[in-house]
Design a protein that fits this description.
Order of helices and strands: HEEHEEEEEEHHEEEEH
Low-confidence stretches: 6-26
Structural class: alpha+beta
Largest sheet: 4 strands, antiparallel
Radius of gyration: 23 Å
Helix content: 25-40%
Distance between the termini: 9 Å
Number of helices: 5
Strand order of the largest sheet: 1-2-3-4
Strand content: 25-35%
Mean pLDDT: 87
């Protein structure tokens, strides 16, 4: 009898420990965003993002009352003049309600792109937003416009985010493609991808090119990660629900 009770207590404590560990691993906290500047690789263009301060305070600082709908982050695209001063080429609204997480600017200044809504990577309709140099939206992309559902399901995630990319994306020389290092789902449980492959998006149409050996390898890794995760889940459920062994003495 003592052995059965000890086994039951052990399983209970293990379940609590597992739940606490999972909660700690999946929890995350977002501070309110601040103004951020993103400069092209040649240093000639700069995009400055100003968050929607009222919404940022309400959502991420817990202060103020809910603002009226319709607000958004603001963007300002500038070009460095011959005297080194920045000259405004465009200023206006971005599609993000509060702010994007990252942005890149083409060396030509003809395009820029923003990535993810502040407070949740990989979620919502603004995972990638592509603009022309006049601030017109070429295309807004959700993660499902970029990756199939099976792949998305295998990606690591936290309480707020799907951790789908690594590092800062870039715009290829010649403005033809937006290049993003998309995370490859890890085999074991992990909060962040440990490797990536390069996903190319046509910057004029917003269409992602999903083909080639790198893509095939990433899809194979996603399948392996999904199967392994399901096996771990099944083993855990079996361990926690199988009948306790009766005492032998």
């Amino acid at each position: 009898m003592m052995r059965s009770i000890a086994t039951l207590v052990f399983r209970f404590l293990l379940a609590v420990a597992g739940l606490c560990a999972a909660t700690a691993a999946s929890a995350d906290d977002w501070a309110a965003p601040g103004r951020a500047a993103f400069v092209s690789s040649n240093g000639q263009f700069r995009l400055t993002v100003t968050p929607n301060r009222a919404l940022a305070q309400f959502y991420f600082e817990g202060t103020g009352s809910a603002p009226a709908p319709g607000g958004s982050a603001q963007g300002r695209l500038e070009q460095r003049g011959p005297d080194g001063r920045w000259v405004v080429r465009w200023q206006g609204r971005l599609v993000n309600e509060v702010a994007p997480v990252d942005a890149v600017v083409a060396d030509s200044g003809r395009y820029f792109a923003t990535f993810d809504d502040w407070g949740g990577l990989g979620t919502g309709p603004n995972v990638v937003d592509i603009y022309d140099g006049a601030g017109r939206t070429i295309r807004a992309l959700s993660i499902h416009d970029l990756l199939p559902q099976d792949y998305v399901d295998a990606l690591p995630r936290s309480a707020s985010s799907i951790n789908w990319r690594r590092g800062l994306p870039r715009i290829a020389v010649g403005d033809g493609q937006l290049l993003i290092d998309v995370g490859i789902p890890p085999f074991m449980d992990s909060l962040f991808p440990e490797s990536s492959f390069e996903l190319a998006i046509d910057i004029t149409t917003g269409i992602a090119r999903r083909s080639g050996p790198a893509w095939d390898g990433a899809m194979a890794a996603a399948t392996t990660a999904r199967v392994a995760a399901e096996q771990r889940r099944s083993a855990w459920i079996a361990f926690m629900t199988e009948p306790l062994v009766a005492p032998v003495t």
